[in-house]
Amino acid sequence: RNRSVPADGLFFVTDHADVGEVRYGEVVTVTFDAFNRSDSLITVQEIMTDCDCMEATVTSKSVESGERTLFNVTFTADDKGKFIRDLFIRMSGVGEDRHLTITGNCI
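User: That's the sequence. What structure does it adopt?
Assistant: Structure tokens below.
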């Protein structure tokens, strides 16, 4: 599944990561790989998460045409049961935020 393929922005190899079963309190790191398929520089302006249990960083906020960047997301399993966590990435020159998800089951 990949709904992240606009020609005017970053192409994400995947927009979803399933971390499987994790223990309550466990810290998990997920990396999303992205390529700039546009003809111009893209600047990552903001990375928003839907909970305090996640922190996200990007290896390079300025991504030249044809270059790649990595979004590293650290997630702490803080709720037992199945979960879905969302990230939204705002970039210059791209009309809509990119949506990435992390799913799993906290035991």
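Strands lie at 10-12, 16-22, 27-36, 42-49, 54-58, 62-63, 68-76, 81-91, 98-106.
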